[in-house]
Amino acid sequence: MTPIDRRVFLSRCAATAAVAGLADLDGAERSAGAEAATDQASPAGRNGFCFLHTYEASGSYWAGLEKAGLVRPHNGVRLINSSYGDDSARFNQVARVGGALHRIVSGRSRPLVIDRVAGGIVYHPYQFDAELIRAYDELLGDKFLGGQIHETISNTHNDWDRFLSVDPKYAEDPIEAAAVRDHLNHQTIASRYLEYGTVDDYDGRRFPRDFEALWQETVRNFQAQADRVAGRCCYAEGSAKGELVWHAFYKLGARSCLAEVGPWASHRSQFMVASLRGAAKAAGKPWGVFFAPWGPQGCTSFLPLGESSWQIPPDTWDKSVWPIGPELGPSSALQRRSFFHTYLSGAHTLHEEWGAECNLTNWDSGELSSYGRVTRDLLDFQDQVGDVGEPFTPIALVLDATVVPPFARAGKLQQLIPPRAIDLDWAQVKEALYPPAESAAAKGASELARGEVACYAPCPYAELFDVTPSDAPEAVWSDYREVIAIGDGHAPACAVRGPIDAQIARLKIALEKWSPLTRTGDMLLQINRRAADQAWIIGLHNPYGAYRGDVANLGSILEADCAQRETLRMKSPIKSARALHAWPAGSGIERQGDELVATVGPGGTLIVEVMT
Predict the structure, then answer these.
(1) pLDDT at site 480
(2) Which of 95, 114, 496, 612 is 20 to 30 Å from 477 at the Cα level?
(3) Average of pLDDT values for 367-377?
(4) Which backbone phi and psi does 607 adopt, to 5 degrees?
(5) What angle do CA 571, 574, 580 make, to 5 degrees?
(6) Measured between alpha carbons, how far is residue 612 from residues 534, 576, 595 in Å?
């Protein structure tokens, strides 16, 4: 696969969208409700972002998206490939050459991902048509992300915990398929099914008792699933297990890696994004974000379980453990923060685990839900504003790529496998970057509102760094102004080394030194630089004061006392400043000489363009 950066990715997407007029599309894409929204390509200057809408077997959801005006020329497709239901709703049939999905994808050469091959759901040994996989590879090239292999680290943990729950002897003895089969044959009770193979696939395998063995078990599971899709695959994981592993999965053949974001999937998501961005630069491959609306309580879904695109049998689903409903899941405020943070962070793609259940209240009518209105706002922003530059990341934190990457252990594995020095060093870095917040908003937020804060944690520093693997090409290192080694392992010659306490102090100094501004608060702060006019694009996100509620309207309950103000002082004289996006009402920017006083409402997002 040819190395690809974000500029190349979008230039290919935008070029196809610009030349493939609506007349070239199949009738399935030409509904009256869609034409006004889709007859123009996104601004040519935008560097590489594609929102992938869900496509399910009936095509009804896609038709509803068209009625709602959400299908744009720059959108891609996420095909849901569930373990539930029958083969008529899976890849081989739904994506067949000449079928409706094939026409939609080929008409505008839309990026495509197949969600899912394995992980996060009961394992199903479905036989993917290798020739059809190759056909899409030839059709789309770099824009075919392949099959999504999901949470390999997390689910490898889960599977081994299940075996130990059946019988603790499997901490020492090889797995006996015949002895555990009846215990691990359920389809919907998570403690009684496997996620990364059949019972027979695990027969004779032994419990991994150290980091190297656990990593090899993870690699084995990933490669087995990659083989099912002829090696055309991408990898998704949340921060709890995989925030520093991306470089390894690119080396294993992942075409793209995806940071799974949501209250139950990720904490300090911006750190995970910085790590993925650095790994993608080193690999010369795209990356994205996968939004999962699980937590703080249950999962958002405007459809009853029986109508879900996942085709989960409602009568067997454990609703006490995995409840779903329109009143559950994160606030629309957190969804907005996640979507716009992703857009500014340099991601190539964004797609959703429950998009078909969340964006529309009814597929036939195409009526947008409160969740869907946030999606529309993001797509409108891309159409109307477009180019927000690229993340300004002058600092690289070096991750030793010559050892088993740091990843968390859970359950019984956590008890048996102690952390190494590299794990402890990176844990210290994260604790230093995200200290306990002291703002009035932090102290005044209700318990309900605090449930979402950790997903994008407050931070007194701007997001000015990547976590970059130590074996990155020399050209990658030349783009950084300061390179700081974490730990005493492998690092490039340009890296500054030292004890972990000294390196953390050096990082804090560098974050202040290289920032184009000083600040007075600790909201999430993104800083981009736009090449076309050298504008600074600044994103501020308030993590406090919002929780799920007012489902039919705002999708959030907002606590007014949690609005935040902070002063940004640019280090160069300001020529002009304007807000590009401000939510909720009352959010905005006020210029006072070379200072900008930013107000961001509870749970809100503010994006500002500054010319200096």
Answers:
(1) 99
(2) 612
(3) 99
(4) -120, 125
(5) 110
(6) 8, 7, 12
